[in-house]
Amino acid sequence: MSEDKLRDFLKTGKDWSTLRTSVPGVFVLKLPAYKASPTRLAVDLNPVGDDGNPKKRRVLILRSSADLDDFEKLFQHETLSKLLNMIDSVNPKAEVARRRKGEEVLEL
Question: What does pTM read for this prediction?
Fold first, then answer.
């Protein structure tokens, strides 16, 4: 991972834009300044399909390592897996997303 590339993205990237990383489904998101919070970067987790494009509109945004710790606890909870299996069995099948070309990638 290049800290220089992240600093440059923080300075020159557009608000709410994402930077693809070398890890499928892991993106860097530029958050705009809001009230007392300065412009900052966050990790945007969004699973990708076979075509390499994000599968979801809504994503999981992590702003700190404490956020990651909190979500790791949730992901490890056994009932979450059971709930998602039940949801999978009742939900209709979704369409496959199309692929985007020419995006910059941050090597992790």
Answer: 0.61
